[in-house]
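C-alpha cells help. One example:
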Amino acid sequence: MNELERVISDRIDSSGPITFCDFMRLALYHSELGYYSKSVRFGKAEGDFYTNADVHPIFGAVVADSLVRFLNDLSSNRPKRIVEYGAGNGKLAFDILTALITDYPSLAESTDYVIVEQSNLAIEHQRRRLSQFKQVKWATAKELDAHPIDGVVLSNELIDAFPVHRVRLHDDGLQEQFVAYEDQHFVSTWLKPSGSTIDQYIDENQISLIPGQIIEVNLDTRKWLKQVSGIIGDGALITIDYGDIARRLYTAKRMNGTLRCFSSHKLSDDPFSNVGRQDITASVNFTDLMIYGVTVGFETLELTNQSEWLIRNGLIQRAEVFEKLMQTRGDTVSIVEGRQALKDLLVPGGISDNFKVLVQRKGPKNDR
C-alpha cells in the first residue's frame, strides 16, 4: 500500500464508502500525493501519455492562427489575452508562442499568455520550457475573475481528466458507484446517487440508459464552464478534447462507460491499481458543454472533428511551409517527421479520430 492509498483507505474507514468521483479526485489531485501533483510524466517518449500537441509543432501553429483570428475580431481596444487552462508540460504554449512571435510579432508583443494551472509539478515543467517568453504569466481563476479578460480561453485535453461520477441503471433504479475498502483492496459498491444533480444531468442531456449500462457524469465540467464564463468579458472559449455528443457517447456499445487509465502509454481499465501513479480519464460529453454553456452566457459557434477543424484552419498550408523550410535546410529527418505528424493528425486511426473541437463565444459582460 502506498501513501496515497493509505490516505484514501483511512478516510473510508472513518466515514464509510466515498463516491468514485471523490476517489478519482484524490487519486489525481491530492495536493501532495495525487498523480498530477507527484507522479505525472509528460511526453511521447518517456511519459504516461502524450497529447496532440506532442505530435508536432504544426498543431500549435494552427491553434495560434485560430487564436489570432479571434483576437483580431474583438472590437475592444483594451489589451487582449490568451488564457490556457491546464497547460501540462507547456508544449502547446511553446508552439503557439513561437508561431505568434514568428508570424504575428506585433500581436505577440501586446498579448499576454496566461496559464491557469493547479499542479505545481506541471508549473515547474512550464517555467523551464517557457522561460524565454516574457508574455507568459501564471494566475488563478480567482485572480482572473477579478479582472475579466478580452481574448480567448483555451483548453487542450483538460476536461477528460476531471473527476466523474459513475452511475448505472439497475432493477431498483439509478445507482452510483461508491468505493469501499475490503481485505486490503479498493472495491466498488453501488448505492443510491449522492445528489439530485446527477438525475438532472441525465434528463437535460436526454440520456436513455439500458439495464446494467454504466455512464460517467462530469459535474465538474459545469463548475469549470461557470468559472470560465466569469473570467471572459468579451471573447471565446476553445475546447479540444477526447469525446463526443451525448447520443453517440452513451450507447449500448459502451456498456461499461468510457473510463480508462494510462501508465507508460499502457491502457488499463482498473482505476484501483497504482493509485496516484496512473492517469484516469473519461470521454467528454460535448452536448453538456453546449447545453450548460448557454446557461452561463456562451453561444456555440461550432463543434467539429479535430481533423476537420485543423484542415479548415490551415493545417495543410502550415505543413507545406514547414516542409519547404526543411528542404532549404536539407533536413530530411524533419521532413519525414512532418509528414508522419500530418498522417497522425488527419488519417483514420490517428490521434484526431476521437477528438472534437468546440468553439463558444461570449459577448461583453453587463455591469458587474
